[in-house]
Design brief:
Elements: H1 2-18, H2 24-27, H3 33-40, H4 48-51, E1 96-101, H5 106-117, E2 122-129, E3 137-140, E4 143-146, E5 148-149, H6 152-156, E6 160-163, H7 167-178, E7 185-188, H8 204-207, E8 216-218, H9 222-238
Helix pairs in contact: 1-9, 3-5, 3-9
Length: about 240
């Protein structure tokens, strides 16, 4: 067993070196389980860009991890995925209009923190909340952001929307936010769509390719995502 787990560890280590710097399981490995869940959507977010098939212009050409930049990592987006249109989970700009629903909660705050720490190319950050939160200002690396009262129309103006809310809210609004060619790409952190046919359930280091052509992306819960990162190398080695 020692030999097996050593091989698994080495395989996992090599895999992490080859995945995007925006891999949220990697980013959040030292955070609490709850905070990990906030970003396993990304996103784990591979990368927010790499994982979810966003393709910017060639001015941001690489998303490869560099040891020398670990102290102040910066997000670079991949060019290997050719962009077509926003409706196919692809974005053709080098910066992104990012929206976060529920950003004043613990999960949403962690998503904001990840965007800041990874120097993700945010053109503008919009934070949506309830009537209780609307009007408050949140200090971010991208400047002071006033919390907006959530509406589907406002969320659709973004390129990417993270939902850090409960399943009922996601069921009511996620598909409307991403509907049509002009809808946003939605990354849902709740359990609402984890078992829904046609919606990819993603751990980016494992099945990032499943997001291509999709505008609504689900992520596993925290313990599942963390566990799979350990089990996946074993599966690759032994089937």
């Amino acid at each position: 067993w020692n030999s097996i787990f050593r091989r698994s560890f080495l395989a996992s280590k090599a895999q992490r070196r080859n995945t995007s710097k925006w891999s949220f399981p990697s980013i959040l490995s030292k955070t609490s389980t709850m905070k990990f869940n906030s970003a396993a959507a990304l996103l784990a977010v591979g990368s927010l860009a790499n994982t979810y098939g966003f393709t910017p212009s060639s001015s941001v050409s690489s998303f490869t991890s560099h040891r020398q930049s670990l102290a102040r990592p910066s997000a670079r987006l991949p060019t290997h995925i050719q962009h077509t249109s926003r409706s196919a989970t692809t974005l053709s700009m080098s910066t992104f209009k990012v929206g976060i629903v529920g950003a004043t909660g613990a999960v949403g705050k962690e998503i904001v923190g990840c965007l800041e720490k990874r120097d993700f190319p945010v053109d503008s950050l919009r934070i949506f909340g309830s009537e209780r939160s609307a009007g408050k200002e949140v200090d971010t690396k991208f400047g002071k952001v006033k919390v907006e009262l959530f509406s589907e129309d406002a969320a659709r103006e973004c390129d990417v929307v993270f939902l850090a809310v409960d399943g009922d809210f996601s069921l009511a609004h996620a598909e409307n936010i991403c509907a049509g060619d002009d809808g946003a790409v939605v990354i849902d952190n709740s359990s609402a769509f984890r078992y829904k046919e046609g919606i990819p359930l993603v751990v980016p280091e494992i099945n990032a390719e499943a997001t291509k052509g999709k505008k609504l992306i689900a992520n596993p819960n925290c313990t599942t995502a963390i566990g799979l990162m350990a089990v996946w190398p074993l599966h690759k080695l032994f089937g």
